[in-house]
UniProtKB/TrEMBL annotation:
The chain crosses the membrane at residues 41-64, 76-101, 121-143, 163-187, 193-212. It comes from Pleurotus ostreatus (strain PC15) (Oyster mushroom). Keywords: Membrane, Transmembrane, Transmembrane helix. This is Uncharacterized protein. It comes from the Eukaryota.
Length: 225
């Protein structure tokens, strides 16, 4: 599902760039003004929708990994650890839906007052979810570090407790680019479009790395300990 939505997003993004900067480069006020004036076009609506769906699914994937990792300490601990992030994820879904709907209304854009407020809140919540989950996953893996090293040979233990493993399992890569996007978007800096694309790509890469580790059987499991 992630791959399909990401493919649609990349295709729409490429088409949007072509329409804005090539087909309408002579638009009164420039290409950027054309983009702001045509937010209700189907291609822009799809762009917002796929961006929102990708972010939500990727956040949900990290939430699932957090639950799996904490389940090694018992289901109660896992539910307690993921309860608050799950509520934040639900809130981000609501805000993301409102952001998508408002941004694609005729006469409005990403940078209109209401869509900007929704968008900033949405990405702030999404970023908060990722930061909290990153901390929870990192904290739990570090606590398990000594126990795993006592149970497994060094060459096997490193698959579960190495720095690279912690970065991959916690999807920390996405958090970095999300912060850059959120800052530039909140201050209405056009470079946010660059960081939006980079954040989306980083988010998908982080998700695919997790999926790859799961497929290879090297990812953390409920019964790892």
């Amino acid at each position: 599902v992630l791959f399909c939505v990401e493919t649609i997003f990349e295709a729409v993004q490429a088409r949007t760039v072509q329409v804005i900067y090539i087909d309408n480069r002579a638009y009164p006020g420039g290409p950027w003004q054309y983009f702001l004036d045509t937010q209700n076009l189907a291609i822009n609506v799809i762009f917002y929708a796929t961006t929102f769906i990708l972010t939500f699914l990727s956040d949900f994937l990290v939430l699932w990994r957090c639950w799996v990792i904490w389940t090694a300490s018992g289901r109660l601990a896992a539910y307690l650890a993921t309860a608050f992030p799950a509520l934040l994820l639900l809130a981000s879904f609501v805000m993301g839906t409102l952001w998508t709907l408002q941004s694609s209304q005729p006469g409005l854009s990403l940078y209109s007052k209401l869509p900007l407020a929704y968008g900033t809140s949405y990405y702030a919540i999404s970023l908060s979810v990722n930061i909290i989950l990153t901390i929870l996953i990192t904290f739990r893996l570090l606590l398990y570090r000594h126990r795993i090293k006592e149970s497994l040979p060094e060459e096997h233990a490193k698959h579960y407790v190495s720095l690279l493993t912690i970065i991959i399992e916690s999807a920390a890569l996405y958090s970095l680019f999300s912060i850059l996007f959120l800052i530039t978007y909140a201050v209405n800096n056009p470079t946010n479009q660059i960081f939006l694309g980079m954040a989306s790509s980083a988010q998908q890469i982080a998700g695919y790395l997790i999926i790859y580790r799961v497929a290879e059987g090297r990812a953390w499991k409920k019964d790892t300990l």
